[in-house]
Structures are given as structure tokens and as C-alpha cells.
Amino acid sequence: MNGYNITKLSNGINIVTENIPYVKSFSLGFWFNTGSRNENISNNGISHFIEHMLFKGTEKRSAKKIADDIESLGGYLNAFTSKEHTCFYGRGLSQHLTKTFEVLADMIQNSVFRQRDIEKEAQVIMDELYDIEDSPEELIFDKFESIIYSGSKYQFPIIGTEKNILNFTSDSITSYMSGNYVFNNFYIIASGAVDHNKIVHLVEKYLIKDFGKKRNGKINLPDNPAADQFFEKETQQTHVIIGKKTFGYKDNRRKAISLLSHILGEGSSSRLFQALRERNGITYQVNSFFNSFYEVSTFGAYFSTNDKTAQKAVDIVYQEIEKLRNRGVTAKELDKAKEYIKGSILMGLESTTNRMLRMAQSIIYFDRVKLVDESISEINAVSMDEIADLSQNLLNTDTFVKTVISSKNTLFISAA
User: How many structural domains compose the chain?
Assistant: First the structure.
């Protein structure tokens, strides 16, 4: 059916594959539906730490052998952690699918977590943390989300805290994995030159350790009021986010919000780019964003500028948001935004990795694979009236908050 096959095993593992007959490669992802939102203040960062540690050696492979076994076949192995997921994935030629699967299966079942490797990797992750601290354009999103999601587990940064990073042990890692890296949280997703029955066979052959199951509790999302925050840091530029919380991943208004976000600040023809960069010449970096999670999303705009023009830039952003709310969008703007987003979706399908990522998000959030044609139809169906109605609630500037990183408190926000 449309190239997709889905099998849910009795132990809870979900297997989703898509055969693409005209390619010779595959992308294979081992997904766990767990991330920083499943952590607490004392173990924040452990999901990301585990992501690193699974590459550090198993009972039969050293860290170097894990890499060699894939790279010697022209393949690629990597992983990432988000607030809601952890994914270990490989790419390669079709004839090397079994080896890639076996290596990934070995990593998630048989990693040994030696204390010397934990201590060494803690220093590597500390360097990663310092890189974020030295990158205000990245750091500001962590700061913004810690404020906007205050009181919920979405406030935790994915990388964690220095105290936690330096104190993880083999026992804390294995204990956390046993409670969260379980079969009913586990998805195996593959796209490309793959055969579904073969993937099922590989699961039955190589995933022999019982990870058990657990009931996933609902994430608490208190409606705590957020306030503007200023963070003093030695930077050349002032970095600003103006944003708010909005609807989660499964809300049917997401397509309309995506279109509004594009019109506001995505691309060189967007309103913010034209107002801030082209007409006023006061910023190089400017973009809107719409980051979705299961229960909630963040919507807003980010820019950087020098401290002398920061207040003017903030005023312009608020003005453009209000204009969009009060005057609406033109039919031409909406049509252009639809074509851009549809183009992004369709061009993304040329990558087996993008297809694998899309399938994973779909099966995890919707318990099915949404067809591309369905997504395109949803975009086409968004009307001018729907955009106008949504704008009245979403673009109320009284509900936006400001986060600023700068060496000078130019925007008169109380220091944090």
C-alpha cells in the first residue's frame, strides 16, 4: 500500500518500512520515543549522554570497530537527541543493510558503559556545552524554552547541566535506560532499497534482549505566565527571540501556523526579512520559527543586530506581527507560502533519510504514516478565512515574550 508496510510485534516493537525501487541505498533508524522531556532536574541531559555512550563500545566491539564496521562499507552512522525522541541511524548501500542493522542492534543491547569511557565522554559533552554557550544564536533558544515552558519538563535543555553531565555513572545510565528505552517506546524505520519481510526477520534474529514495556504518563503542562528575560553575555551582537507557546503536533491548525510563519519570517521575501534587512539594513540574521512537540509548540521570530539598533528592530518585529494580525495576508502571499512549503516537502522526498525521518514522526505522533498527498491536500485546503481567524489569537502581541542575550541591557529588561 503506497510503498509503506507496518508491523507491530507482540513485544511492542513497531516496524515501518518504505520500499523505493529506483534507489540502491537505505536509511535505517532505531527510534526511542524518549528525550529530555522524560527527564527531571537531577538527571537532565541523560538521554543525550546515552546517545553518546552507545557509540563507545559493546561487549564485542570497541568504539573504533563500531565506526569501522560501517565506514569500511561506505556507510554512515550517527544519532541525535531531541526533547521527545532519541534516534540512532545508519545509511548505506542495500547489500550492507544486514551489517548496519546488526551493528545498531549490538549498540542498543550490549553497550558496556565503562566508567573510564563515561568520564572521558563527559569531557567531550562539556566541550559541546561550552560550544553552545559560545554560540548565542543557539543558546538563546535554550534560554527561551526554559522560560516559555517553565514548570514543565519541556523547559529542560537537551544537553543537560554541567553538574549532571559530570556525575552520570554506569548505574544511573542503565537504570534510566531500563525505564525508558523499552519496546513499546521503540520504532524501527527504514526507507530506500529495503524489503519489509527482511527487516522483520532481522528484528527477530538480532533483537533478542527483552527491553520490557512501560506505560507512558502524560506530560504536565502548567500554564505558568512567562516574562521577558535579559541574559548578559559578552557578545558582538544582541540576540533576540520574540515568541510564545501554541498548539501541539496533532492540532489540525498546524498547517495554517506553518503558512503564517513562512509569510512572517521564512525566506528573503518574508515580511520580517524585507522590513528589517532590506528596508532598514539593521540585521543579517532574521527568521521566524515554528517548533512542534506532541502537546505544545513554540512560534516566534529570532534576529541578531547591534546593540544600538536592537530596540528599533524589536519595535519593527512587533509592528509586523500586528500588521499581519490586523490586516491579514494577501491571496498572493498565501499562494506563495503554500507553494514554498509543498516544494520543501516534495524536494525532501529525494533523500531516503528525510523520508525515514518523516515516516518516524508520522507513526510516532499519529500511529500511522500520513501520505504525502494528504499533507499536500491539507496545505491546499487552508483558506484566507482560516488564516484570518487564527491570526486573531496567535498574533496577539500581548501574549508574546522576549528573550535577549547581549553584552548591554539595551532593551531595558530586568537582568536574569
Answer: 2
